[in-house]
UniProtKB/TrEMBL annotation:
It is an enzyme of class 2 (transferase). InterPro entries: Glutathione-S-Trfase_C-like (IPR010987), Glutathione-S-Trfase_C_sf (IPR036282), Glutathione_S-Trfase (IPR040079), Glutathione_S-Trfase_N (IPR004045), GST_C_Tau (IPR045074), Omega/Tau-like (IPR045073), Thioredoxin-like_sf (IPR036249). The lineage of its organism: Eukaryota, Viridiplantae, Streptophyta, Embryophyta, Tracheophyta. This is Glutathione S-transferase. Belongs to the GST superfamily. Keywords: Cytoplasm, Transferase. Its main location: cytoplasm. It catalyses: RX + glutathione = an S-substituted glutathione + a halide anion + H(+). SUPFAM superfamilies: GST C-terminal domain-like, Thioredoxin-like. Residues 4-84 form the GST N-terminal domain. It comes from Rehmannia glutinosa. Is involved in the conjugation of reduced glutathione to a wide number of exogenous and endogenous hydrophobic electrophiles. It holds the Pfam family GST_C_2. Residues 91-228 form the GST C-terminal domain.
Length: 230
């Protein structure tokens, strides 16, 4: 069996790893997946590949490491232009808008879900929930504008923003289950609700987005490990 040129250092539970897997799937690129323990005992291969941030994911292409998930997706799109569709829009304005919403999701919206999981005070939790739903409203508007009446943020096909938001769908389900919320509601946000169902069924994502119950088990295991170490 020939060795694959492409290797992906990551973890099945990491949405940032998942989004790179989705991008590779969209481009029909074969790769070797190397599971990395990113909570403790980080491997020498990871520290060597990403000595600055020491985080996953890392794509190794022709023995050269590329780090940070958004950068990796853009690299995949530019390095394999002949493989399938373009992930980022070809129009410069649409491309800028896609990058804007990707940054919003990563820097502003998803961190609120993580913050909600750590908070115990009722008033603070309520304030975070309000911010989360404000963000959901913005993302619904973004979907309507970016999709232009079609099935995905990328139009007819899964694109950059689809991958960036879609990789979180497993963890969104976990948040809904643990906090008793419904974030992408068919009545309040019909665009996002329909999009989420289509996205998890897409070939690029259907075997990648983790099942919520597995993520909950993983989360509980990590919390228990943290508690045992003080």
């Amino acid at each position: 069996m020939s060795r694959l040129n492409e290797k992906l250092l990551g973890a099945w539970s990491s949405p940032f790893t998942n989004r790179v897997q989705m991008a590779l799937n969209l481009k029909s690129i074969d790769y070797e997946f190397i599971e990395v323990n990113f909570y403790s005992n980080k491997s020498e291969s990871l520290l060597k590949a990403n000595p600055v941030h020491k985080t996953i994911p890392v794509l190794i292409h022709d023995e050269k490491p590329i780090c940070e998930s958004l950068i990796i997706i853009q690299y995949i799109d530019e390095a394999w232009t002949k493989n399938g569709q373009s992930i980022l829009p070809s129009d410069p304005y649409d491309r800028a808008i896609a990058r804007f919403w990707a940054a919003y999701i990563d820097e502003k919206w998803f961190p609120l879900l993580k913050e909600l999981g750590k908070e115990s005070g009722d008033e603070t939790k309520a304030a975070i929930v309000r911010k989360i739903f404000e963000g959901v409203g913005l993302l619904e508007e973004a979907f309507v504008k970016c999709s232009k009446g079609k099935e995905f943020f990328g139009g007819d096909n899964v694109g950059y923003v689809d991958i960036v938001l879609g990789c979180f769908l497993g963890w969104i389900k976990v948040t809904e289950s643990m906090a008793g919320l419904k974030l992408f509601d068919e009545t309040r946000t019909p665009g996002l609700a329909g999009w989420a169902e289509r996205f998890v069924s897409h070939n690029a994502a259907k075997d990648i987005v983790p099942e919520p119950h597995k993520l909950i088990e993983f989360y509980m295991m990590v919390q228990a490990a943290k508690a045992s170490t003080g």
